[in-house]
């Protein structure tokens, strides 16, 4: 099949898929998102658990990494004596944290929407490390 010379300029205008790594946005956390950060008597009781969870969600990665992040949140909140709250939060993040929801707290929210579940490339891992260093955070 011969390509028409008239199609060449049109083909040159089409966007090509990027082979370069995406650009990571700076880390941000809203605490426990749409959930309280603690109890009436200690209003930040599990806030640090949520911030750690946000770090993992911001970074994103594979489906298995998301499961690990969600279990870590549940265990962290339960360790503060709130097993019932931990189970509720776990259910909430499993339902509401999908990378396919157009929310600010979805899995991989540091990257462009619809990244999905995808292991980070070497360049993307370097971006994560640079941003964590800039923000004074550690990469657990």
TrEMBL record:
Signal peptide (from-to): 1-20
Molecular function GO terms recorded: phospholipase A2 activity
Classification via InterPro entries: PLipase_A2_dom_sf
Organism annotation: Candidatus Reidiella endopervernicosa
Keywords: Signal
Protein name, per record: FAD-binding oxidoreductase
GO biological process, any: arachidonate secretion
